[in-house]
Write a structure and sequence with these properties.
Number of domains: 2
CATH topology of the largest domain: Beta Polymerase, domain 2
Low-confidence stretches: none
Largest sheet: 5 strands, mixed
Number of helices: 7
Shape: globular
Structural class: alpha+beta
Radius of gyration: 18 Å
Distance between the termini: 46 Å
Mean pLDDT: 88
């Protein structure tokens, strides 16, 4: 009986993860917690066992895009990575690193290009973007450090090559230690210009 219950629980988590992935891709919901709560509600599974973790949902998003996205998703990913490369080129003095869905391959048309940049102050990055004549808006992002502390970081959102770019600013020495990923709780994967160029060669 216990085995059956476990199998049913696994199936339920998969179903919720698949529905959450559909909500994320089709409706542009960026918050995984919101997406899985909506999915559980739609499926009538509220309060029935544990909801899937963020890593399960990301895997379901990737699968959803492979099944329903096909070549159009590959084209979108190529466009977004090309735009990311261009944005990284003009922010080159701040050692930009690509992170998030565009790097992971789970980006959709509602995704932003996420960059980490490194400077003595956020104002330096703002000045560089402003000097390029690019309108931008500031934001703040909460990220968890390896010590388990949540810290606030300034960032700037702008449009480049028709794509939304979000550049979050870290101290210069922050390049040595990435914040924890909300997906799997491990240090975020970051890649530099050369690695993005190689990604483009293989898409």
């Amino acid at each position: 009986m216990g085995r059956k219950t476990t199998n049913e629980s696994v199936r339920e988590r998969q179903v919720v993860a698949q529905e959450a992935a559909r909500i994320i891709v089709d409706h542009g919901v960026r918050d995984y917690l919101v997406a899985k709560q909506k999915a559980a509600e739609r499926l009538g599974m509220n309060g029935r066992g544990s909801l899937p973790g963020n890593a399960e949902i990301e895997a379901a998003v990737s699968e959803h895009l492979q099944i329903f996205g096909g070549e159009s998703h590959e084209d979108l990913l190529r466009l977004m990575r090309t735009a990311a490369l261009a944005a990284m080129e003009f922010l080159k003095e701040f050692s930009p690193r690509l992170v998030g869905p565009v790097l992971a391959g789970t980006a959709d048309e509602n995704s932003a290009i996420n960059l980490h940049v490194f400077a003595d102050s956020p104002e330096m990055v703002a000045m560089e973007i402003g000097d390029m004549g690019i309108p931008f808006r500031p934001y703040e992002r909460r990220l968890k450090s390896r010590r388990g502390q949540v810290e606030m970081y300034a960032g700037f959102e702008f449009t480049h090559c028709n794509e939304t770019v979000q550049a979050t600013v870290f101290p210069v020495d922050g390049i040595r230690q990435a914040p924890m990923s909300p997906i799997n709780g491990k240090p975020m994967r970051r890649v530099d210009l050369d690695a993005v160029q190689k990604l483009l060669e293989h898409v």
